[in-house]
Amino acid sequence: MKKLINDPNQVVRESIEGLTLAYPQYVRQVEGLQAVVRRDAPVRNKVAVLTGGGSGHEPMFAGFVGRGLADGSVAGNIFTSPPPAPIVGTAKAIHGGAGVLFLYGNYSGDTLNFDMAAEMLDADGIQVNTVRITDDVASAPTDQQAERRGIAGDFFVIKAAGARAEQGAALSEVTAAAEEANQNTRTMGIALSSCIIPASGRPIFDISEQDMELGMGLHGEPGIQRGPMRPADEVARQIVEAILADMPMGRGTEVAVMVNGMGATPLAELFIIFRAASRILSAAGISIVRSYVGNFATSLEMAGCSVTLMRLTSRLKPLLLAPGESPALVQV
């Protein structure tokens, strides 16, 4: 294992400190916590959007804290949910008096700890709503969407909720925007190689140099199919067609598209995947309003990518296009 780290047990703490030192114009660290908040938090009378989860997926989640996005992010250790206490502390650091919306991927550890934190905050008189993100098409059948994992589509839900909160909407309205974004967002990915957790120094799964796995999760959760490597155009077609089968869209539909790297995939390859995806969507009469290509939700140094489509309703489109400023996204 070769990694540019000091102590394997201090990777998250030192990474967060480095993030806040690099981008003080957007974020600051919450004292004593593995958490960041927007520089001007708390914003008075604005709904506070709190996200978070296990580390190792950078720039998700802390990279999307800032104006027009999340107000705060709390980090667990690598691939591990943050405990309730720092969630509570971060929520209090961003609460401006209008309530807090919890946004996070649908994983059992996150659900348990964020729910406990919500109960603790309620006891302190702070209203909390929760939206669990469920965009991973491969993780459960269409009729069991509530059981699905949240992966790269987290970004679009954070973007929609953050923009709505920035407009001064009430907690119920910000929650509704997040729910609508989640319902209209689908992701599927492929893995080409494993990643290595710093504390263990070992790959989390084995895959041959000749194979790829369709639908593998960000923590190495099994996918739906393992087979020989295919050309990029074929991979893109398999992914996009699976998404469209799960979320049918007629001609004239507008979408946002993300091609997300898992951490070790060159941008050149991600652009080749986007090239193929855009051609497939164009042939189906689906228009791309905004595209995002790069690393948004990674799995340390895993090779592979995912494709996310968000169907843009009349309410979601202006929220997607609204300005946002954070370490990992500057959109004007």
What features would you describe in this structure?
With 332 residues, the protein is an alpha/beta fold. It folds into 2 domains: 8-183 and 323-327, 3-Layer(aba) Sandwich (Rossmann fold); 185-317, Hypothetical Protein Tm841, Chain: A,domain 3. It has helices at residues 11-22, 84-94, 108-123, 154-166, 171-183, 232-246, 267-283, 316-321; strands spanning 27-29, 35-38, 48-55, 72-78, 100-105, 128-133, 185-191, 211-214, 225-228, 254-261, 287-294, 304-311, 324-326, 329-331. The strands form 3 sheets. A 6-stranded mixed beta sheet has the order 1-2-4-3-5-6, with helices on both faces.
Spell out the key features of this protein.
2 domains; single chain; 332 residues; six-stranded mixed sheet; alpha/beta; Hypothetical Protein Tm841, Chain: A,domain 3; Rossmann fold
